[in-house]
């Protein structure tokens, strides 16, 4: 199989190292916060691809390297949906943000099994058909994480579950975005990778 360079910022949300770092933290709240920030990166990349360069000034705050497209997750999410992001992709993002907000605003909050089950269900509901299996078809609860000679199933812990589900979601989001860019004639590919 031949691989080519994709000249877009996909690495900001699908780099496996990001997810490995999340798993190293061993804290549910930190895990959810970091995963939500990775999803926020996806929304920023998506909006950067969708908003016409001549209109970007209306969506950014700050200047130079510190500038960002919109400031808050929900602003980015609703603007993304209004710009063509599928609702099936937006729903798990919204659910993850809801859990993140619970951690941020409720000192006694603890993740519940129902939170993770609902997230798995929403991630599984977002389908990307590329004509061939891509490895993230689900079900998420059966996904396995292989690290340090051990195998952990997504359903075995909140951290493993949310991390595996978010990695699958962001990978499917990347596949969807590549297809979306290609359909709009904006997919920028580089040379072959060796």
Put simply, the count of helices is 7
Number of domains: 1
* Cα distance spanning the termini: 11 Å
**Helix-strand string:** EHHHEEHHHEEHE
How would you sum up the global shape?
Answer: globular
State the low-pLDDT regions, or none.
none
Q: How confident is the prediction overall: mean pLDDT?
A: 87
Report the β-strand fraction as a percent range.
5-15%
Largest sheet: 2 strands, antiparallel
- Please give the order of strands in the largest beta sheet: 1-6
Description of the structure:
With 194 residues, the protein is mainly alpha-helical. It has one domain. It is 54% helix and 11% strand. It contains seven helices and six strands, in the order βαααββαααββαβ. The protein has helices at residues 11-14, 16-24, 28-50, 73-82, 87-105, 113-125, 158-183; strands at 3-6, 60-61, 68-69, 144-147, 150-153, 189-193. The strands form three sheets. The chain has a two-stranded antiparallel ribbon with strand order 1-6. Strand 2 and strand 3 form a beta hairpin. Helix 6 (113-125) packs parallel to helix 7. It is globular.
């Amino acid at each position: 199989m031949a691989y080519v360079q994709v000249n877009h910022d996909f690495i900001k949300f699908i780099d496996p190292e990001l997810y490995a770092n999340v798993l190293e933290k061993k804290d549910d709240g930190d895990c959810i916060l970091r995963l939500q920030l990775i999803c926020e990166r996806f929304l920023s990349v998506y909006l950067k691809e969708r908003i016409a360069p001549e209109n970007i000034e209306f969506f950014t705050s700050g200047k130079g390297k510190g500038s960002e497209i919109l400031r808050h997750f929900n602003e980015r999410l609703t603007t993304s949906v209004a710009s063509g992001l599928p609702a099936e992709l937006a729903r798990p993002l919204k659910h993850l943000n809801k859990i993140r907000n619970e951690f941020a605003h409720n000192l006694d909050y603890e993740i519940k099994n129902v939170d993770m089950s609902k997230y798995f269900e929403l991630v599984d509901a977002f389908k990307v058909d590329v004509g061939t299996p891509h490895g993230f078809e689900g079900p998420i609860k059966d996904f396995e994480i292989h690290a340090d000679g051990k195998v952990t199933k997504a359903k075995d812990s909140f951290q493993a579950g949310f991390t595996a589900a978010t990695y699958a979601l962001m990978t499917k989001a990347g596949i969807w975005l590549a297809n979306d860019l290609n359909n709009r004639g904006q997919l920028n590919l580089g040379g072959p990778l060796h």
